[in-house]
Structures are given as C-alpha cells and as structure tokens.
C-alpha cells in the first residue's frame, strides 16, 4: 500500500497545483502539506474527506486501497492476533497495534483490540475506545459489540448506573441472521450458518443457565438453582462429542466453556 503522503504528492502534481494552493484550500500551512508529502507527519483524520474531495477521488483510492485486499489483510491481522488472545494478550495487542499503523482507525482491528485490554486496569482506555466505536462505526456488529463491552467494563468498575443505559442502545432481536440463513438457504451457506449459530447458542445457553441458577439460589430456591447448574453441565457434556470445522472455528463449544465448567463444578461440588 502506497504511503498517504506520496499519494497526495502524486495527485497534487497531476493537478498541477502548488503546496500553497492546496494548503489554502484545506486551511493549513504549506509546511504541513510538505511534512505530509515527506512522510514526516500524517494529515488529521478529519481532513481526509476534504483531501479526497479536492482531488476528486474516493477515500479508498486516496489510501490506494483495494477494498477486498484490505479486508483480507485486516482479517489476517485479526486471525494472527486471535491465536494469542487468551495465552498472551500482550502479544495479541502488539499485533493489532502494528495492524493499526497499516490501517489507521480500522473498526475491525479496534474491535479486536478491545478483547486484549483488561477492563479494570485499563478501564479508561476501554471506555474511550468503546465510545469512539459506538459513535463512529458504520458496522452494526462492531457498534453493538462495543456497547456490550462498555456495559461490562462499567459493571466491573462499579459504575452500575451506566450499565442499563448502555445496554438500551442495543436493539432487542428475537432472531439472528445466522438462524435465517441456516433455515432459508441451502448448501454450504446454510451449513456454515447453522454451525456458527449452534456454537453461539450452546455457549449462550450454558451462560443463561448459570445466571438463572445463581439467582434462584440467592432467592433461597436452592434445589431449583442446582437443577440449572446440572442442566448446564449436561449441555456442556453433550458437546464433548462435537467436532471442529477448522474453516470457521478453532475449538468446540465444549472447549470454549472451560471457565463455565469450573464454576459449575464448584457450585455442584459444594452442594
């Protein structure tokens, strides 16, 4: 990918205008333009649309992005970072931050970065990044994931009054796109969607059983609460026979829910 400064310089010369004329249009100094073109600094992100408009190009063209290629490179960066998300979060973060140097402000990379940050020791950074994504991203999946993480961060840091208002941003949905694709399409599309939804549903069901079990026990309904934990254990055990579709997953729902297993076994062991 060509450097932005070099691209600006090329476009300016093609348009046969001076740095001064270009700078006046943007309301910056010609020294600022010179620094961009020499690669010493980058234009403020707020100037990017104006720069693209001035040269009559899209922002993708300004950055010399092949959109498909860019998305593939971003996916590769996130996949590489994911390998270390749980075992070495610092390494995962480093990979993602290097990715952001190549693709500044990329929503997908920023969304993945949130998963490497500790919600308590780095709460201020997490909150700031979540708010930025919620306000700026055009990708609903990123926006609502940022809402979820922000609400979780608020709860873990004792800002309970902010949890519910944050969750209210997320729309109530009684079906998922994956469910519809699995049900209404055929072949590989249907199969992939069913596999993805199956794992999401299994993890969610185990989590919900644990939550209802805890609440029932808090209310003094001990036996009912324990029944929820036993069901959660049975659901998890059922997925022990499942297999990994390596094209889409790195582990089964059984393997993904090791933390839940520890909580289930602790509660049932103490009963």
Could you explain the architecture of this structure?
This protein has 271 residues and is an all-alpha fold. It folds into three domains: 4-62, lambda repressor-like DNA-binding domains (434 Repressor (Amino-terminal Domain), Orthogonal Bundle), CATH 1.10.260; 71-167, Serine Threonine Protein Phosphatase 5, Tetratricopeptide repeat, CATH 1.25.40; 177-270, no CATH class. The chain is 70% helix and 0% strand. It contains 16 helices and no strands. The protein has helices at 4-15, 19-26, 30-37, 48-55, 59-62, 67-82, 89-102, 107-114, 123-136, 140-156, 160-167, 177-184, 187-218, 222-238, 253-256, 258-270. The protein is elongated and about 80 Å long. The N and C termini lie far apart (60 Å).
Brief description of this entry?
With 271 residues, the chain is mostly helical. It is built from 16 helices and no strands.
Present the secondary structure layout:
Blueprint: H1 4-15, H2 19-26, H3 30-37, H4 48-55, H5 59-62, H6 67-82, H7 89-102, H8 107-114, H9 123-136, H10 140-156, H11 160-167, H12 177-184, H13 187-218, H14 222-238, H15 253-256, H16 258-270
Helix pairs in contact: 2-3, 6-7, 7-8, 8-9, 8-10, 9-10, 10-11, 12-13, 13-14, 14-16
């Amino acid at each position: 990918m060509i450097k932005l400064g070099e691209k600006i310089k090329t476009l300016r010369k093609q348009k046969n205008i001076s740095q001064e004329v270009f700078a006046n249009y943007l309301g910056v100094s010609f020294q600022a333009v010179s620094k961009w073109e020499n690669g010493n600094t980058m234009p403020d992100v707020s100037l990017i649309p104006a720069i693209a408009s001035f040269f009559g190009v899209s922002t993708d063209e300004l950055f010399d992005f092949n959109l498909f290629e860019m998305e593939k490179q971003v996916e590769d960066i996130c996949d590489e970072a994911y390998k270390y998300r749980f075992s070495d979060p610092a390494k995962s973060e480093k990979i993602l931050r290097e990715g952001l140097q190549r693709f500044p402000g990329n929503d997908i990379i920023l969304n993945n970065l949130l998963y490497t940050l500790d919600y308590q020791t780095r709460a201020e950074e997490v909150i700031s990044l979540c708010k930025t994504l919620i306000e700026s991203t055009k990708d609903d999946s990123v926006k609502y994931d940022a809402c979820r993480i922000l609400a979780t961060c608020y709860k873990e840091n004792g800002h309970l009054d902010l949890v519910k208002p944050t969750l209210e941003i997320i729309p109530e949905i009684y079906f998922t796109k994956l469910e519809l694709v699995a049900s209404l399409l055929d072949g590989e599309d249907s199969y992939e969607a069913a596999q993805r939804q199956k794992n999401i549903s299994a993890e969610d069901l185990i989590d919900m059983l644990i939550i209802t079990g805890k609440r029932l026990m808090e209310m003094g309904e001990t036996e009912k609460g324990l029944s929820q934990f036993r069901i959660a254990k049975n659901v998890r055990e059922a997925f022990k026979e499942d297999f990994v579709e390596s094209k889409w997953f790195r582990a089964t729902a059984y393997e993904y829910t090791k933390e839940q297993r520890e909580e289930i076994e602790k509660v049932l062991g103490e009963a």
